[in-house]
Write a structure and sequence with these properties.
Helix content: 25-40%
Structural class: alpha/beta
Strand order of the largest sheet: 1-3-2-4-6-5-10-11-9-7-8
CATH architecture: Alpha-Beta Complex
Shape: globular
Order of helices and strands: HHEHEHEHEHEEHEHEHHHHEHHEEH
CATH class: Alpha Beta
Bound molecules: glutamine
CATH superfamily: Amidase signature (AS) domain
């Protein structure tokens, strides 16, 4: 997809300006129904498009992403544009700087069409927690697109952009990719800079691509990955630190051989146990396993016994980090303030402004997680919850280390069900959290994981996509992408 468009651009069969205008026309037509975008930047995008066209006309060599229209999740900062993170508290915020991934994409002459919808501060699995709008699944508009990067996934699936960026803390790139029938990659923790990503849970958050093909995801990863002085957790592709040295950069799209002959794929028995896994999803994933076997991969039955505790661990550590990261949105340091809306009397103290601003401008799910997190971190309960969860996290990581001595990749479903109905889980947060059961472990262990489409199920006359998840070794995105590519092209 990206490569084809690039060829057309450099052969001057089309211009980026024309392409960008075509995408805005598509958005105008489809987005009133889908609701993928929170804001559009027409002039800004066309400016970038013309700059790319000029370079091409002058015969300059341009990057694969040059002049290609993309969409950015609204928790990633672009200088001069709004970044709401799906929250009313950032309703008036305009970013004064670029996220590091945006600086890199700007160097490559990417064209940013607009910012996409998300669950407030990326907390959710359906995009219904956005304070602004509910995004609809393009395959069935009575269903959710998944979340929290639901706007980005829906925009890619509806072809309202060529590709998009999302962020993934517990599955927010992969689960919506699965629901919308597109490719979503969560890179190894530390491969992509988080500078300029509005933090949810900093020890889990990663930015990654949502795209139409595995090759596109690889092309995008190449452009956003790498060491960044502004995020000390970033590393080189091999997992080494490059501070002080110059990194050559890894090219992910050049080793998509599709050869899985020497690949060992582990299939955890726990993933298929009786329980929440939908039968139709199970049968599609089992078909995928057979396909890999046919392609020459070795399938190995494995066990992930601590996996059972992954969701609980995630839902202790994540809110703890959330409660700390969101403390800055108090109406004084950041965000909408109640200050100008109420009578300030002399008995009021600063804390009243904090309380009232947060009460008015933060949503229900965000408040729930702040409360859960403060509780888990409180002096009386720290050992029992936070510390315990950190210990289980270490155990899960160890288990992955052991398993990766035996196999190269771990395969399973991305989500237990296809896209669910809008409103189906909004009253029951625990039900909603279960949607992340297969995705959170990769964030806990920090390993890379990808969701690729593996078929459709027909429900109520609509074809709903199902995603297959592959998780790989730390910083071994090449192997992961190539194995995903093998499936896609077979
Ligand atoms: N759905 C998960 C949650 O609600 C994951 C969110 C994410 O990855 N940002 O926390």
């Amino acid at each position: 997809m990206i490569r084809d468009l690039h060829e057309k651009l450099i052969n001057q069969e089309i211009t980026s300006e024309k392409l960008t205008e075509e995408y805005f026309a598509k958005i105008e037509k489809k987005d009133p129904e889908i609701g993928a975008y929170l804001s559009l930047n027409k002039e800004f995008a066309l400016d970038k498009a013309r700059a790319a066209d000029k370079k091409i006309k002058n015969g300059e060599e341009v990057d694969l992403l040059a002049g290609i229209p993309c969409a950015i999740k609204d928790n990633i900062c672009i200088e001069g544009l709004p970044a709401t993170a799906g929250s009313k508290i950032l309703g008036n915020f305009v970013s004064p700087y670029d996220a590091s991934v945006i600086s890199k994409l700007k160097e490559n002459n990417s064209v940013f069409l607009g910012k996409t919808n998300l669950d407030e501060f990326a907390m959710g699995s359906s995009t219904e927690n956005s304070a602004y709008q509910v995004t609809k699944n393009p395959h069935d508009t009575t269903r959710v697109p998944g979340g929290s990067s639901g706007g980005s996934a829906a925009a890619v699936a509806a072809d309202e952009c060529v590709w998009a960026l999302g962020s993934d803390t517990g599955g927010s790139i992969r689960q919506p990719a699965s629901f919308c029938g597109v490719v979503g990659l969560k890179p190894t923790y530390g491969l992509v800079s988080r500078y300029g990503l509005i933090a949810m849970a900093s020890s889990f958050d990663q930015i990654g691509p949502i795209a139409k093909t595995v090759e596109d995801a690889a092309i995008i990863l190449t452009r956003v990955a790498g060491c960044d002085r502004k995020d000390v957790t970033t590393m080189l592709a091999g997992g080494r630190s490059a501070f002080g040295g110059k990194s050559a950069g890894t090219i992910y799209e050049d080793r998509l051989t599709g050869d899985v002959d020497s690949i060992k794929i582990g299939v955890p028995k726990e993933y298929f146990a009786e329980g929440g896994l939908d039968k139709s999803v199970k049968s599609l994933v089992e078909k995928a396993i057979k396909k890999y076997e046919k392609l020459g991969a070795e399938i190995v039955g494995i066990s992930l016994p601590s996996g059972e505790y992954a969701l609980a661990t995630y839902y202790i550590i994540m809110p703890s980090e959330v409660s700390s990261n969101l403390a800055r949105f108090d109406g004084i340091r950041y965000g909408q303030s109640i200050e100008k809306e109420i009578e300030i009397d002399e008995n009021m103290i600063l804390r009243d402004i904090y309380f009232k601003s947060r009460a008015k401008y933060l949503g229900k799910e965000v408040k729930r997680r702040i409360m859960l997190g403060t509780y888990a971190l409180s002096a009386g309960y720290y050992d029992q919850y936070y510390l315990k969860a950190q210990k289980v996290r270490a155990l899960i990581k160890k288990e992955f280390e052991q398993i990766f001595k035996k196999v190269d990749l771990i395969l399973g479903p991305t989500a237990p069900t296809p896209a669910f109905k809008i409103g189906e889980k909004t009253e029951n947060p625990l039900e909603m959290y279960l949607s992340d059961i297969y995705t959170v472990t990769a964030n806990i262990a920090g390993v890379p994981a990808i969701s690729i489409p593996c078929g459709n199920v027909k429900i109520e006359g609509k074809e709903l996509p199902v995603g297959l998840q592959l998780a790989g070794k730390w910083f071994r995105e090449k192997e992961l992408l190539s194995t995903a590519y093998a499936f896609e092209k077979s």
